[in-house]
Amino acid sequence: MARMKTSPSAAQASHDIRVALGRFRRRLREVATEGELSPGQASVLARVSKDEAHTVSALARSEGVRPQSMASTVASLDALGLITRTPDPSDGRRQIVTLTTAGRRLDLGNRAARGEWLAGRLDAHCTEEERRTLIAAAQILERLARA
Predict the structure, then answer these.
(1) What is the H or E stretch that residue 85 is in?
(2) pTM of this prediction?
(3) CA–CA distances in Å: residue 108 to residues 14, 59, 99
(4) I want to staple 37 with a disulfide (CB 3.0 to 4.6 A). Which of 42, 59, 89, 96 is the partner?
C-alpha cells in the first residue's frame, strides 16, 4: 500500500501535537490522582464511569494491557470499594464492572481537580488571545478526531 505524501507542516504538526498531548495527558493524570490512585487505576475508573467498557477483557483492550494486568487493577479497585464486579448474565466466565457510589464520587472529584488545575494554569500562564487560540485549536482537534 502506497503512503500518501504529506506536507512538511502536516508532518511537523503531527509530531508536535502527539508529543504535547502525551505530556499533557500524563500531567492531567498526575493532578487527578495525587496520593489516591495510580494513573492506571484512575484511567480505568474514568473509563468505567463513561461506560466505555463493561468487562475486564474490554477494559484491557481499551487500556492496551494484558487481561491479567487488568484483572489485577480491577481487583485493587474492588478492594478499595470503588467498583463492583458481577457475573455477566450472558457468559458467567466474564465479569461486568460498575462503579460504586464511592467510585463515582472519586471519579467526579478527579475530573473537577483536572478542570480546576487546567483553568488555573490557563489563567496564570496564558493571555486572553492565547486562550482563544486554544479554544480554536480544540475545535480543530475535535473535528480531526471525528473525520
Answers:
(1) strand 83-88
(2) 0.74
(3) 32, 19, 12
(4) 42
